[in-house]
Amino acid sequence: MLRSFTATVWGLVLAFVTGGLAQSTSYQGMKVQDGGVIRGVIKWVGAAPAAVTLPINKDVDVCDPHSHKRISLERLVVGAQGGVANTVVFLRDISSGKAFPPVKDKPLLDQVECQYKPHIVLVPQNSDLEVRSSDATLHTVHMEGAATYNLPFPFANVVSSAKMSSPGLVALKCNGGHVWMNGEVWVIPHPYYVITDETGKFELTDVPPGQYLLVAWHEGWTVVRQEGTIDVLTQRKLQRPVFSDPKMWEQNVTVRPNGETSVEFEISNK
Q: What pLDDT is stored for residue 123 in this prediction?
């Protein structure tokens, strides 16, 4: 049975999600016997809303090399077949299962043409997030939530590292005057998290047989108001968009030994 709810206050959402993550901090990695697979898709129901955009009014040569004049905030990405990208899908309250894979490359957040790439990043708890800027302009990555940092990037292609010790959500914004820049970091306590691709599809593999609560999370996609901020370089007063609260949906799923479970979430503006 699919359940849907929208938190009315961002703090409640953050507490709910972070609380759920905190319950999993004792997660134990092990060799999974007869593990199953959960495959699914997140689909948009009804007409997709128009993309939210803002005018590019700073560092146009860097932020708008293709002369688009406006930039998408990337809060809701619906594909041609209705699949919803950038949805985080995870198992809630799982205490043991597969271990995190060996680290080949640390998670990387880049700043490209004044947008965060990727828009959402998953970082294993107690590991480092590497951050760099490919832009030849000043960016300052401000993080708040499960981790709090303010990382300046006055030069291109210089990498900084940020330790992610506590599970939960970290909101991203730029204090360098690029008010449209936004993104999310999820610090995850176990490996059963995935981000949907551009078709809205996801897959969780090597899941121990059993019953689980599967959660789909999506950041808020509408602008509810503007808040004042200051460009740290010019001290100019600016207005930054504030978004609606994230939404979450839940389904109970059963994973059978060596089996495959199919799941579909339908989401909308309702």
A: 98
